[in-house]
Amino acid sequence: MPKTHILVVEDDDDARTMYAIMLRSWGYEVSEATTGREGIRQAQRQIPDLILLDVMMPDLDGFEVCKQLRSDVGYHKVPIIFLTALSASDDRIKGYVQGGDDFITKGHLEYRELGVRIQAALSRAQRHSVSAQGSSRARVIGLLSLRGGVGVTSVAMNLARYATGVSDQPVILLDLAFPVGSLALWSGLSGPRNIVTLLSRVPSEIDMALISSYSQQNVYGSYFIPGPTDVTDLSGIRLQALDQVLSVLRQEGYTVVLDLGRGTLPLMWRTLAACNWTGIITSADPTSRSLAQVAMQSLPGLGADARNLLLIYNDITNYKPADISLGFPRTPDVFIPHTEHFGDLVDPSPFAHLWSLIADRAPITL
User: Fold this and answer.
1) Rounded distance, CA 103 to CA 361, Å?
2) Positions of the chain with pLDDT lower than 70, given as ranges
3) Which domain holds residue 275?
4) CA 271 to CA 44: how far, in whole Å?
5) What is the distance between the alpha carbons of residues 343 and 362, in angstroms, rounded to a whole number?
6) Could you read off the pLDDT of 111-158 as tens digits, one per residue?
7) CA angle 232-197-155, nearest 5°?
C-alpha cells in the first residue's frame, strides 16, 4: 500500500526541514516546496493526500495558494492545514473562507498535537470519500417548533453530535432559524461566513468547495454553517440556492440536520419537501402542545411527508404532565428528559432512540 503523501509548502528552511523530519518519522511520504507557486506546481504534478501550507510567503501567500487549488475540482477534498505566525481571528476566518481545513499557529503547537490534527484531517477526508460513494444513504432531517423556547437548537446540535459519533457519514448542521441564529451566538462566531450569505449566492456557483468554505467544524467532528448574529436583510436569499445546497450535500453523502427554528418564513415551508424526516419539538406548556398538534396536522399540506413526521417531547422545565401524550394526536416518538447538560443523559440516550428512528427507515424518494 502506498504511503500517505503530504506536501509541505514553507519558505523557512529550518521550519520546513523540521516538519519534513517529523512527518517522515511518522511514516508519511513528504514532498517540499519553498514558495507558493512551487507548491502549486508540486501539487499539480502529484495530488497530495494533505497539504501543510505556510501563509506568509514572498510570492503567493498561502491564502492565494489555497484559493487557486480549491478552484480545481481535483483539489476540493484534499485537506489543507495552514501553518502561520498569524493568530488574529480575521486571519483565521480568511483561511477558512479560502477553503482551509485547519489553522495552526506556529510556536503554540506541541508536535504530538500536530500529528493528531494531521491524522484527524486525513481520517475526515477518507470518511468523506467513502460516504460520498454511498450518497443514496444521504438524509435530511428538519427540526422545528411553532413555539419558541422549546429547545429546537439544542436538539439539533445534540442530534448532529450523536450522529457524528455513530455514523460513517459526514454530518452537517445548517442554522436556518432566522432572523438571528442561536448557533452562531452560542459558538461565538460572527462575520460574513453565515448561511444567509451562502444562500444569497447564484445557485450555479454552489458546489461542495463553496459549501466547505462556509462551514465550521466543532470539537465533536460534525460540521455546521451558522446563521447571522444580528438582524439581517434576508431579501437576497435565493430559494433555488437552498435547493442546490441540499442537492450537493446529498450527492456527497451527508447527513444534514436543519435547525428551522419557529419555521416562520416561506423558506421553511419550501424546505419541508426536501426533508426525509421532520421533527416537531414540543414541551409541557399548553401553548407548545397545542401548536405541536397544529403542526402535525398542517405540515403535510405544506410539503412534509406525513409518514415521516416525528413528534419530539423536550422536557425543558422538568414539568411532566401525568400523560405526556395529552393533547397530542399521538404519543411522542421521542421523550428527552430535563437535564442541564445533554451529555449527562444516561444510556440509552434519547438521541440514540431518535437516531434509530431516522437511520432504520429507508429515506423517502424525492
Assistant:
1) 38
2) 1, 73, 87-90, 93, 96-97, 108-109, 124-137, 184-191, 264-270, 341-348, 360-366
3) 137-359
4) 40
5) 28
6) 788 888 888 888 766 655 544 444 556 899 999 998 888 999 999 999
7) 75
d(Cα 305, Cα 80) in Å, to the nearest integer?
A: 40
| Sequence-ordered list of residues with C-beta below 8 angstroms from that of 251, at least 6 positions apart, any chain | 132, 135, 138
In the chain the first and final C-alpha atoms are separated, in Å, by 40
Is 32 within the bounds of a domain? yes
Contact between 85 and 41 under an 8 Å Cβ cutoff? The reply is no
CATH code of the domain containing 56:
3.40.50.2300
Report the alpha-carbon angle 31-35-40, nearest 5: 65
CA-CA distance, 133 to 1, in Å (whole number)? 21
**3 state SS of 144:** strand
Residue 226: CB partners within 8 Å, gap ≥ 6?
175, 181, 183, 184, 187, 189, 193, 194, 195, 216
- In a domain, residue 366? The reply is no
How long is the chain? Answer: 366
Task: Say which amino acid occupies 133.
Answer: Q
CA atoms lying within 13 Å on the CB side of residue 111: 9
Angle between helices 111-132 and 13-25 (to 10 degrees): 70
Q: d(Cα 205, Cα 195) in Å, to the nearest integer?
A: 15
The CA distances from residue 363 to 1, 4, 255, 276, in Å, are 36, 35, 11, 6
3-state class percentages of the chain: helix first, strand second, coil last, to nearest 5? 45, 15, 40
Task: With respect to residue 365, please indicate whether it lies within any of the assigned structural domains.
Answer: no
| 3-state DSSP assignment of residue 325 | coil
